[in-house]
Amino acid sequence: MMCWRVHLCLLVALVQVFGIAARTNTDDFVALKSLKEEWENIPPNWDGDDPCGSNWDGISCSNDRVVSITLASINLSGHLSSDIEGLSALQTLDLSYNKGMTGPLPSSIGNLQNLSSLILVGCGFSGPIPSSIGSLQKLVYLSLNLNKFVGEIPPSIGNLSNLYWLDLADNKLSGTIPVSKGSTPGLDMLVNAKHFHFGKNQLSGEIPSQLFSSKLTLIHLLLESNQLSGSIPSSLGLVQSLEVVRLDRNSLSGSVPESLNNLTSVQELFLASNKLTGPLPNLTGMDLLNYVDLSNNPFDVTGIPPWISSLQSLTSLILENTHIEGRLPVSLFSLFQLQTVGLKNNRINGTLDIGSNYSNQLQLIDLQNNFVDSFAQRGGYSPQIILVGNPICDGGTENYCTVPQQTNSSYSTPTKNCFRCDSAKTASPACKCAYPYSGDLVFRAPSFSNFGNITIFASLEQKLMATFRSHSQPVDSVTVNNPTKNVDGYLVLNLQVFPSGQDHFNRTGITRIGFILSNQTFKPPSGFGPFYFNGDNYPNFADLAAGSHKSPSSSIIIGSAVGASVLVLLLLLAGVYALRQKRRAETAVKKSDPFGSWDPSTSSGGVPQLKGARCFSFEELKKYSNNFSEMNDIGSGGFGKVYRGTLPNGRLVAIKRAQQGSSQGGLEFKTEIELLSRVHHKNLVSLVGFCFDHGEQMLVYEYMINGTLRDGLTGRSGIRLDWMRRLRIALGAARGVQYLHDLADPPIIHRDIKSNNILLDERLNAKVADFGLSKLMGETESGHVTTQVKGTMGVLDPIVAANMAPGSVEKFVDLALRCVQESGLNRPTMGEVTKEIEYIMELAGLNPNAESASASESYEEAKKGFDHPYTNESLFAYSGGYTPSKLEPK
């Protein structure tokens, strides 16, 4: 009886093993095994041969492929094996805050063609950055800051056309900033990048003039604390999207270019500690400036520049040791946001008069070592004033004649009167004793200098908690403490994150929180500016605190060995049987299903050539759309219905589900997803994935919150589209179609351009949609290239005649008429259309390369009665047939 029970147990185990066995792709498992052998302090559950099926900590999979490794702050140590290239489906690699991760990056990392995020913040990596990184065409985030990298910035990074975030700060990089030359790429090619963070390296040479152009969309340019020389290039003034500029602590010389005040969006400007000469830069018109530091430069100054009193957003004016002279105007101190005036070591003279209407935020006026001979006191005053080293203080004993002791703000998160925790734990704001996850939040260019402002730090904590909650993280509360300004002028805050429901985090919780902070998912409140997080290792996982485990008895060991032997034999027999059955099934499927031979891990033969599109299972999309609920029904048409869905990471998607009996077959569906997956442009609606499962055909697109252009033009969406917005939308649509014509390989003709097929995102950026009717250039019908008109009859929407520039409407109508000429020879190319719209926008006083403003900030009337952004005639309302339409430009 006992024997039969043992056999029964083994059979049950066999069934369980076969239920999950072989789920992880073999190449992925081999690569992870190689990484595992190189690393110490790996998670305890990295055991067995099925990382996806066993849910290894820090490993995320899509079907059988490993798509994400996030292992922040778990005290990993070792090297990054060159076998990382075996994870060919990997999209995210985050090993941040593991200082024991050392050695060079392997050049094989350039073979991870699906990688979109490479985040290695606060590790110990060294050696040169491999030039093979320039092969990662899908890379969006590249964060290698806080390491020990040496050598030059690889010019090949200029090939990363999708790059948004580039952070190489706090390393030992040297050489010049690379720009393109001939066939050699450079950073000037990164026109979609918003962040250049190169501070605290050893970069030398001049800042290349070629680095900047009107095509660049940078918002943060951080080059502080390097060894850069030469003058500031005047081309910097072309990058009108800039919000933060840090060129301080270099050896820059010459005059500041007059074009600097073209940067009207700049909020923080740091030019301190260089060798700049000539007059103080004229900052007139830079009305958003909060923080200005021009200190420690030998400027040629004749008086107080008048623009100082015109900067209505100014919080901090730091002009120490700049040779500025004369009497300070009373109007300076009435700037309503002013907090700090630092003008020590200059030639300020006469009477100091701050008036009676000075800013109620004013904290400090530091005029040490000037020539002030009197102070017009008007009763009590709250700002701290320092006049040490001025004639007024010769023998004086007034408070303003002493240097106060340097103290940091003592701000910390308010807590209740908690009981004392034991020495190993910390009390949270809710008086719960726990082991928090901690580290430093470092803000590289804060717009304020009053670090005692409780309100602004409270808003930071609220924003942190909102981010963690929106990503369903197990966080009970957060605290920020001890704000200090370090030697680099950065604001440093200690952050503590407390667990919810227990007194410690598990590894999954730590790695996810670390990833939120390392990949910039968290967006700080206005005024804090660019930041990085430097997390501490987390030493309080439950398995580490539990102590050593007891050794198993000898009888258990013997029994386990015998059982394992029998199990292995059964597994071998079952494996042979399963392999035979699998081959028979595959043969049958291939005859009827165009995807029957498709293995997502390969790309050979007749396999769909997909680039970045994810294959979803039916059960996944059913779950993400709440069982295709009526509440999530956002459109319908001949093809079927469209549902709103929410992915596990919180991303909204639109799921286009074919109705049963749809006329589109498997081969057509395969062709469509191949087409959609390989076009990528900011003005094209992107394909997130698809489903070809359970007899279903579904396409998963990015969700466009503001619906179709037609909804906007007819007023259904509640968005007021004035002439300026319409021009921007027209330009975006034109650029999207131009990409299909000129840059797609082979070119693609859309054949159904209309207002229903132009969608608007949250910033009213236009995206061209619905390639279901598209035709590849070179496809033939009956042996010749088709010229047949396809699509839907279109109408010209009326144009609102009011907020219009003279001449722009006439030119736009003329362009539209040329686009619908019967003969293709008379129609302009899409490249010509795009250039003409850009010219019309310039004529109307608009910058065609500027981003659209946030829709929420620019609507002129609220949305009313508009529930769904997709109408019955939108992107997903595929009719299954073709009807005549207006012609498309060449």
Can you describe what's shown?
This protein is of the alpha/beta class and 890 residues long. Among the domains are: 116 residues, Multidrug efflux transporter AcrB pore domain (Alpha-Beta Plaits), CATH 3.30.70; 89 residues, Phosphorylase Kinase, domain 1 (2-Layer Sandwich); 135 residues, Transferase(Phosphotransferase) domain 1 (Transferase(Phosphotransferase), domain 1). Helix content is 20%, strand content 21%. The chain is built from 13 helices and 46 strands. The strands form nine sheets. Strands 2-3-5-7-9-11-13-15-17-19-21-22-24-26-28 form a 15-stranded mixed sheet. A ten-stranded mixed sheet has the order 1-4-6-8-10-12-14-16-18-20. Helix 1 packs across helix 6, helix 10 packs antiparallel against helix 12 and helix 11 packs antiparallel against helix 12. The longest helix is centred in the middle third of the chain and has 39 residues. The N and C termini lie far apart (82 Å).
